[in-house]
Amino acid sequence: MADAPAPARRIDGKSFAERLRERVASAAARLEADHGVKPGLAVVIVGEDPASQIYVRNKGEQTVAAGMRSDTHRLAETTTQDELLGLIARLNADRGIHGVLVQMPLPAHIDSAAVLDAIDPDKDVDGFHVVNAGRLAVGLPGLVPCTPQGSILLLKDALGDLSGLHAVVVGRSNIVGKPMAQLLLAENCTVTIAHSRTRDLAAVCRQADILVAAVGRPEMIRGDWIKPGATIIDVGINRVPSSDPAKAAEGRTRVVGDVAFKEAEAVAGAITPVPGGVGPMTIACLLANTYVAACRAAGVEPERLD
Ligand SMILES: Nc1nc(=O)c2c([nH]1)NC[C@@H]1CN(c3ccc(C(=O)N[C@@H](CCC(=O)O)C(=O)O)cc3)C=[N+]21
Ligand SMILES: [Mg+2]
């Protein structure tokens, strides 16, 4: 019997993100030294969702560690839409703030689309505003959503030139799937966007040289959906019960991706783990976007960060 192929290389997003944050920090330090501008990021969180609280704390700590200003606005679950829009208007007008992020999801009584629409597109460091979606679609400079941007950096590091490769993106959200497809197209990939209604999803995935999983369903993508040697970017962050039944009974959880990692690892050429893959890149790219927004506000050409 032939030997099993070597397991996939693990793409280390955690250490790539650390290096990117160091480059952002030194570029931000030069911006402050040469132009007197310290990049500032405002993060707004409404309500008490524990997972959101952890993400927001991590963002704040990493922003400060990169030598930038971090303001966190913690609002009560009962905050009205008008109160939130009032805060956004003040942040839009604040010349010391270059990035505004409103943590999603918002409580059900608030219209998320109206809130995103209210953020100044040039401070929209999430890249979620329709103006930034439009800029990305037509190839104009703007602010690019952080998770897709981080995924592209990992892909280019792993593969070099992406030209001509067939990329399959599973998931069509406005925050990951659609912008990811736009960025892959800009890298000259042949792009397929697949989703929950796609017929024979497994067969579509098996055509992928690059497979991006952004569906939000734990371990949905199986080993036999993967072309041997393919590069897998797993965007999923799903909390599932601990695999130890005693711990699960206590409510303990673990984080898994959208890809069945063990199966995929035996077939793929390279794969991002969860945690430690795309997630840390999301925050690093948020800091990079804040730096770029601050440069543009000051009329300074941003340094290349890649
Ligand atoms: N306006 C807005 N923008 C966002 O970018 C946004 C948001 N709302 N709402 C929530 C999601 C989630 N998100 C993550 C960022 C980093 C990690 C991350 O660093 N994860 C680590 C740790 C994972 C863990 O152990 O929990 C990892 O994957 O290794 C995860 C999730 C940003 N989000
Ligand atoms: Mg993001």
* Number of strand segments: 11
User: Could you name the CATH topology of the largest domain?
Assistant: Rossmann fold
Which hetero ligands occur in this complex? Answer: 5,10-Methenyltetrahydrofolate, magnesium ion
Low-confidence stretches: none
Could you report the average pLDDT, rounded to the nearest whole number?
A: 97
Strand content: 15-25%
Q: Walk across the major sheet and give the strand order.
A: 1-11-8-7-5-6
Please work out how many helical segments DSSP would assign. 11
**Domain module count:** 2
CATH architecture term of the largest domain: 3-Layer(aba) Sandwich
Radius of gyration: 20 Å
Tell me the span between the first and last alpha carbons: 44 Å
- How does the major sheet shape up? 6 strands, parallel
Task: Name the CATH superfamily classification of the largest domain.
Answer: NAD(P)-binding Rossmann-like Domain
CATH class of the largest domain: Alpha Beta
3D shape: globular
Order of helices and strands: EHEHEHEHHHEHEHEEEHEHEH
Q: Helices and strands: which structural class?
A: alpha/beta
> How helical, in percent, are the residues?
40-55%
EC number: 1.5.1.5, 3.5.4.9
Binding site for NADP(+): 171-173, 237
Pathway: One-carbon metabolism; tetrahydrofolate interconversion
Pfam family, one: THF_DHG_CYH_C
